[in-house]
Amino acid sequence: MRGLGVNALVIPNGLAAEALIRPEREAVAAFRARLCDRTVVSKVARWDPDKGWLLAIDIVGAMKQHGWQPLLIARGGVEPHGHEVLAAAAATGLRVAERVLPKPSVRDLLLAMEGLEGVDIVSMRSPLNRDSLRVLFHASAAVLANSGHEPFGLVGLETMAVAGVACTGCSGEDYAVPGYNALVLETADPQEFIRLFRELRASPVRERALRRAGRVTAKQYVWPQIIQRILLPRLRLFISPPQLG
């Protein structure tokens, strides 16, 4: 646009204020109780190669090799890449189960978390409502919001909003500060995640600090904040340019 003589007004994506609502403590406790012997990671994204699904599969495999008893809760879309992802998981010896929820509620999410002994990946074939996503993002040990190409990913920010552990890529999530409010992957090597996650889980104090910092960050990206901090000052500049002299 600049080459055409047009100055573009660029603002970040943002969250609705409701994104900051904390999940119900009882639901989080019930979720963790059902999976108390597992290291739960989750990923919610379209089945798209750019979303880093194959890396997520490699990460689960690496976690299993380290004896962490991982469980990936995966919610994809309807895209055909999903078949490739789940086939790749099965080819590496990971056991995949599917769950279809009668309703997209917290109660049905909790029921879906039963009977998963020996399962490595749960493919959620039904939508999850906002309350369910809040529980999932907060209760997971990490949310894999890694992407190979992401202009401004919202899943990582939604995870931060509920004090979850977001693990992003390095392609556009400007809000993610490595080690401060998120885990940030710079490569497609699953051992990078293993190293970062091992250091975090070895220090509960550091994990709590990262979760708190993520929530503080998310509060700066709700739409009222973006409008007040970024949009309005620029609109005022366009309407009333500063006088020279």
- Report how far the terminal alpha carbons are from each other: 30 Å
How is the CATH topology named? Rossmann fold
Structural class: alpha/beta
The CATH superfamily turns out to be: Glycogen Phosphorylase B
- Shape assignment: globular
Nearest-integer average pLDDT:
93
Helical stretch tally: 9
Largest sheet report: 7 strands, parallel
Cα Rg: 19 Å
Q: In what range is the share of β-strand residues?
A: 5-15%
In spatial order, strands of the major sheet run 3-4-2-1-5-6-7
The CATH class designation is Alpha Beta
Task: Return the CATH architecture.
Answer: 3-Layer(aba) Sandwich
Helix content: 40-55%
| N to C succession of SSEs | HEHEHEHEHEHEEHHH
Overall tally of structural domains: 1
Low-confidence stretches: none
Q: What's the total count of β strands?
A: 7
Summarize the structure.
With 245 residues, this protein is an alpha/beta fold.
What does this structure look like?
It is a single chain. The protein has one domain (19-230): Glycogen Phosphorylase B (Rossmann fold, 3-Layer(aba) Sandwich), CATH 3.40.50.2000. It has 9 helices and 7 strands. The chain is 42% helix and 12% strand. The mean pLDDT is 93. The chain is globular and about 70 Å long. The protein is an alpha/beta fold and 245 residues long. Strand 5 (142-145), helix 6 and strand 6 form a beta-alpha-beta unit.
